[in-house]
Each structure stands twice: as structure tokens, then as C-alpha cells.
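Hey Z.,

So I finally got round to the 2-acetamido-2-deoxy-beta-D-glucopyranose thing we talked about over coffee. Here's the setup:
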Amino acid sequence: MTTSLPPPLLFLSLSLLFLSLAQGLNQPQCDAPQQGSTLQVFHIYSPCSPFRPRKPLSWEESVLQMESKDQARLQYLASLVAGKSVVPIASGRQIMQSATYIVKAKIGTPPQTMLMAMDTNNDAAWIPCTGCVGCSSAVFSPVKSTTFKPLGCQAAQCKQVPNPTCPGGACSFNLTYGGSSIAANLSQDTMTLSTDPVPRYTFGCIQKATGSSLPPQGLLGLGRGPLSLLSQTQNLYKSTFSYCLPSFKTPNFSGSLRLGPIGQPKRIKYTQLLRNPRRSSLYYVNMVGIRVGRRIVDIPPNALAFNPTTGAGTIFDSGTVFTRLVAPAYIAVRDAFRRRVGNVTVSALGGFDTCYTTPIVAPTITFMFKGMNVSLPPDNLLIHSSSGSTTCLAMAAAPDNVNSVLNVIANMQQQNHRLLFDVPNSKLGVARERCT
Ligand SMILES: *[C@@H]1O[C@H](CO)[C@@H](O)[C@H](O)[C@H]1NC(C)=O
Ligand SMILES: *[C@@H]1O[C@H](CO)[C@@H](O)[C@H](O)[C@H]1NC(C)=O
Ligand SMILES: *[C@@H]1O[C@H](CO)[C@@H](O)[C@H](O)[C@H]1NC(C)=O
Ligand SMILES: *[C@@H]1O[C@H](CO)[C@@H](O)[C@H](O)[C@H]1NC(C)=O
Ligand SMILES: *[C@@H]1O[C@H](CO)[C@@H](O)[C@H](O)[C@H]1NC(C)=O
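And the result:
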């Protein structure tokens, strides 16, 4: 990469390299050399993220903030399952931003770098563009790209966006995203992911945004709908990807998003990936039981059952922070957990109802899927205050004001695991891995 740089830039990048080496090994490499089809994944609170809070939040503040964003995310996921939203390019209505992880994508020629939110259960691809009214961060400048092309109303892709209109023949569309709404022009340009150029990538170029729940530099959906990244890169990546999310306890680490079948782990446990016809972008699996310690918890079967008609079941989601189980399942698991911890006073914190202010010895919790058991170590189950005085079980009951039975295995429970999505073979793999 550096060989083509003119000498002053070469010098600059070498100085930056030494600067970052001098800062010690704990500093993440925000600009690690790109390798193959693998992208670095950063937590939004990472030192590499421009979106980290300027004033660091206290532990309690950040936990409560993440938890309240989760509520909105769950409402959104449940609304999809309830079939209220049939919006191919973006997940549409009533979604709140809960971007926890970001990846670096390069758009245009020459490339402009955007830090986009990664979302496994969304097909959307949209980016704030020059002239955008109401966008909050860096924007993509189409005029600076020699490969940018607006799509007209006649383009086949225009039929796949919500509410298209044709001002001056351009394919424009509006959608809402949580408390925000956007107006965008459907556009094409080269998108470079790691070292892979994806020519004529179709995305929404945001012209107007209202509200404050948009990921500031765009959304990279990894869902499997018609205009999703997976569909558009079918030849390149064969609808296969994996990721490893770094723990938010170690914000200095980055994880990785590996696109395509090459370099994926061979030794990995699999369960079947299911598709719900009502919302085909969501990644469903068949969770058949939950174990606390060695004992299988007694959970009413309909709390876990996959039902393609109602959309009930279990999904893996990268955008929700804390795992949610439908109330009867959660209560059974929580009670079993409390029993194992023993005779210690339980307190609450925000939406968490199983917290302790004295040290505890926690049992492992195992999610049992068809063909695959995933046992979670304490780091995936417990949140500890930095002072060490409070520990909570990092799960909660799904909100009961939604009309669909949906269990969500969230990102805190996925951290330091590799999740492999093999869509052509309908398999989801999980293996423990230290994300760095
Ligand atoms: C993360 O990086 C910051 C800034 O360089 C440093 O102060 C801190 O000690 C690091 N934390 C860890 C856990 O390595
Ligand atoms: C988006 O479309 C509108 C209406 O055709 C046009 O005025 C505007 O310049 C377009 N913006 C971009 C970035 O193409
Ligand atoms: C889309 O949003 C734009 C800008 O806010 C507005 O002018 C336009 O009327 C909206 N179109 C539709 C179909 O809602
Ligand atoms: C639980 O602990 C409390 C206070 O330490 C004690 O009074 C009580 O007898 C204990 N109960 C059981 C069942 O061990
Ligand atoms: C998962 O654990 C259960 C209960 O301990 C066991 O019966 C089952 O065989 C395990 N499944 C796999 C795929 O290892």
C-alpha cells in the first residue's frame, strides 16, 4: 500500500506508524493494513471511533444507555416479525439506532472512507452525501468520485426501494429509521471493503435527515434481502461471512468481519440457519433449551419454538446489546441462575433484575441449539461495575408490549466468539475466539 505513496505521505505514514508503536501495544491499530476480505470491527466506544462519548460515561450510565437503546431495537425487530414493515432496501419503520459496532468502508474513486454501522438484521445500505440537510458527521462527496452514478427511475433497483419518487427522473425514496427519517437518492458507486472493490454498488445517498437516531456515517446491513450487501456481492462473497466482536470491556481491541468463504474457520460447531418468510432478512436459529450449570431449565416449549407463521423463535443480532428472552423463558433461567448463586441478596439496576453487590460465583449458561451447545463463560454473562461492587446478569425479559415472541441472542453474549453465517448451506457456526 505504501509503495505508491509520494515521499511526503510515505514519511507521514511511517511517522504515524512509529507514533502508534510508541503508544504501546494496548493502543488499537485504527488503520491496520487491510488484508484480503477482512475488515476491522470497532466498538463505538473504541479509541478508534469518532462516535465515542466525549466525556466518558460512568459504568452505570453506559449500561443504562445501552439497555434503553435495546428497548427500541427490540420493538423494531418485533415490528419486522409482526410483518408491519415490508421495506426491501432498509428495515424501514420504527428502528432506533443501536449501532454498537462500526466498520470502515471506502466509497468512490478515489476512495472516501466512511465508518459505517454494522447490522446483521438489516438490508440497508445508505450513506450521508454532500449537501445533506441534517446529517451530523462526515459525508460522502459524489462529485469527487469519478465512478459515482445516480440511478434513474427506470433502473430495476428503483422498484426495490420504499416509496420511490422521481424528481427530475432520479430515483428518490424516503424511509424512517427509529425517530429519524431520511430522503435519499438511489445511487451506485464502487465500494471497497478491505482490499475488495465492489463496482456499481447500489446504496441510498442521503439528501435529508431528521431526528437523531441515524448512524452518523451510514449503515452497512448484512441481512439477506434483495438489495443487501450479500445479494449485491453474491459472486464475490457467496453470501458467507463471519465476525468476531470485541468485548466492550476492552475497547482497545478491534474485532473482524470476514467476508466470503475463504479463510473461514473449519473447526466450528453449527446449527441450522432458518428463514422466516415473514421477514426473510432476519437470521433465525432453532434454540431448543437453556442450561444453567448442568441443569436444563424447565421452559415452556412455546417460548422457544420457531414458528414461520407468527415469526416466533430465536434470532442472532449484532445490534442488540443484551440478550432478551421471552418472559417465561427469562424468568425460568433467571430463577435457576439465582438458585445456583445461592443465598445472596438480589438487587436491580435499570432493566436488569438480577444484580449483586457482594462477590458471587456464577454458573455458566448454555444456549442449546439443534446440533450445537454454546456455553457462555462469565465474561459473556455478567456485567461488572468498574469499582467491582455491582455485578448483574446481562440478560432481560423481552418487552411484553410487543406482539411477537422473539428471543434475541445479543452482542454481549457473542463477544469473543466467531459467528459464521453460511447462507447457501443454511448454517450458522459459533466458535470461541479471542477477538483482536
Ligand atoms: C487503552 O488505551 C488507552 C489510551 O492509549 C490507555 O490509556 C488504556 O490504558 C488502554 N486500556 C487497556 C485496557 O489496554
Ligand atoms: C438527488 O436528487 C435530487 C432530485 O433529482 C437532485 O436535486 C440532487 O442533486 C440529487 N443529489 C445527488 C447527490 O445526486
Ligand atoms: C420525502 O422527503 C422529502 C424531503 O423531506 C420531501 O420533500 C418529500 O415530499 C418526501 N416524499 C415522500 C413521498 O414522502
Ligand atoms: C440467608 O442469609 C441470611 C442472612 O445472611 C440468613 O439470615 C438466612 O438464614 C439465610 N437463609 C438460608 C436459607 O440459608
Ligand atoms: C447439548 O447438551 C445436552 C444436555 O447436556 C446434550 O444432551 C446434547 O447432546 C448436547 N448437544 C450437542 C450437540 O452436543
